Amino acid sequence: MNVNSKTPIVLTIAGSDSGGGAGIQADIKAISATGSYACSVITAITAQNTLGVNAIFPIPIEHVEHQLDAVFSDLNVVAVKVGMLADSAIIHAVAKKLMQYQPPFLVVDPVMVATSGDLLLEQSAISTLKTTLLPMANLITPNLPEGAALTGLPVPNTEQEMTQLIDELRQIGCDAVLLKGGHLETSRDSNDLLILPDATQKLTSKRIATRNTHGTGCTLSAAIASYLAQGHDLQSAVVEAKHYITAAIAHADELVIGQGHGPVHHFYKLNQPQCRPNHQDLVENDD
C-alpha cells in the first residue's frame, strides 16, 4: 500500500450520531477539516441528540464486513480510526478485516464508558477489545474512565493518580497510549499523557469553560488519524490534533445547536475573516 498517497484517505469505523456531534459524523468533519479525505464504515445507528442517546441499532456483522471490503478493495486507506464497537462479535469481525487489509496506521478510541459512568461494553467485550484489537493499534485514546476500565484500577481524580495507570496501559501491547485528562474538571488545564514504550510526554492546553463538548473524543482521535495519513510521525500527529481540538472547543460557543451539550466547532477556520471569499473577486464586470 502506498502510504505517500497524493490524497490522504482516512477510514472511520464507528457508530452514527443522528445529532451530528459525535461518532461517524464528527469523524468525517474532523478528518475533512484537518485536510484528509474521509470514508466510513458504520457499526451502529444511534437515535441521539444533544440531550442524550435514545436508542441504538447495531448493524448486522455481515454488512459491516461488506462495508469494509468495499472500502479497502477500492480506496488507498492510509489510516483507520476505530470508535464505537457494540460487542465482542463485531470487535472480532473488525479486527479480522484489519488483519486482512493491514492499513499502515490504526488509531482506536475505546468507546466503553458513557458520560453517566455506565459501561457501554460488557466485561467480556472489554476483554475481547484488549486481546484482539488494541494490541494492533499504533495509538489508543482512552479517557480516564476508559483507562480505568482497561486496567481494572480506580478512575483517577488527580494528575498524580493518572500516572498510576501508565504501567498497566503499557501492558496492553499497542505502540502508544494517549490518556486524556479532560475529566479532571477541577484542574485549570486540560492535560493528556502520551505514553510511549520508554517515555511519557505531557500535553497541556488551557481548559475552556463551555458545555459544548459533545464529540471531543471522537474528534481528537479522528484528527490524529488524519495527520498520520498526511505523513506526520505519531508525536507530531498527536500534538497537531491536540491544537485542533482545543481550538474547536474554544470556538464551540459560536454554534447554537440543540438544548443540551452541543458539539465542538469542527470548521471554525471557515468563520475566520481570511477564509471568507471576497465577493468583489467573484463578480465579473462587463465594463
UniProtKB/TrEMBL annotation:
Q: Which UniProt keywords apply?
A: ATP-binding, Kinase, Nucleotide-binding, Transferase
Q: In which pathway does it act?
A: Cofactor biosynthesis; thiamine diphosphate biosynthesis
**Record flagged with keyword Transport:** no
Taxonomically, the superkingdom here is: Bacteria
Recorded GO molecular functions are: ATP binding; hydroxymethylpyrimidine kinase activity; phosphomethylpyrimidine kinase activity
Sequence ranges assigned to domain Pyridoxamine kinase/Phosphomethylpyrimidine kinase in this UniProt record: 17-265
Q: What is its EC number?
A: 2.7.1.49
The record's annotation in Gene3D superfamilies points to:
3.40.1190.20
Q: Which CDD domains match?
A: HMPP_kinase
Pfam families recorded: Phos_pyr_kin
Q: Name one GO cellular component term.
A: cytosol
GO BP of this protein? thiamine biosynthetic process; thiamine diphosphate biosynthetic process
- The answer to whether the entry has keyword tRNA-binding is no
Protein name per the record: hydroxymethylpyrimidine kinase
Q: Which organism is it from?
A: Vibrio agarilyticus
The record lists the lineage as:
Bacteria, Pseudomonadati, Pseudomonadota, Gammaproteobacteria, Vibrionales
What gene is it encoded by? thiD
